[in-house]
Amino acid sequence: MDRLEEFKQFAIELAQKGGEMMLEANSKQLGVDTKQHRTDFVTIYDRAIEKYIFDSLKERYPNHRFIGEESAGANNRLESNDPTWIVDPIDGTSNFVHGYPLCCVSIALAIDRQMVVGVTNAPFLKKMYTAVKGGGSYCNGEPIYVSRNVRRIEDAMILLEANYDPRDSDSRRHVFDSLLWKCQSVRHIGSACVCMAMIAEGVAEIFLHHNLCIWDMAAGYVLITEAGGQVCQYNGKPFDPHSGSCMGAANDELIRLTEEVTKNGY
């Protein structure tokens, strides 16, 4: 546990610096480019923050492994038991480009292929979320917990992130329609990492996304589970950071009910 706390504290330092770089960004000089499609943005700050974080980690822990959104390429799978750092330098880059504050720096650590440290810094919200396996979840140093009293979808706020691939429109529409008229409210945040932090904090009760990468959910997995919540795949199968599918919820009952409602989609 002492070593995990050491790793967490260093991740906090790096996420704090990454957040400062986001806050200092010149909106006129973001160097915006696109990756896989027209809404998949990358900026010079994504690349600069990832480089800073990885350079710092490699200097401190030269024998560790590293997976980052902007540098992973085909090396985007957790295939070693060695300590592996997983970094999303800016999750919610589209939000960042538009000056929308729901974006963050996300850093996770896996050991023996298990997520054990999660740090998410949302600098525009002034919130630093941290968690260590077996040590609980925190926001700005204060303990946080998932929503404790909601057991029905009708009472839940759902964070439902859309995928922009038109080939998925039918199944996506089914899931949205199934939940929209049943739950209390639906929100589209634009950052999976922020969404998962909000579930851990008890702001909302259910998070759904079916097209994520490992860096989108690694830190959030630790945050939610250490806050007392549950994380699995869309179909209820155990969490797999390579499946692309993620459902996070405050409790098992909401997992079961959501799976039941959306079983014909995604």
TrEMBL record:
It holds the Pfam family Inositol_P. It catalyses: a myo-inositol phosphate + H2O = myo-inositol + phosphate. Its EC number is 3.1.3.25. CDD domains: IMPase (cd01639). Mg(2+) 1 binds at residues 69, 88, 91, 216. Its cofactor is Mg(2+). This is Inositol-1-monophosphatase. It comes from Blomia tropicalis (Mite).
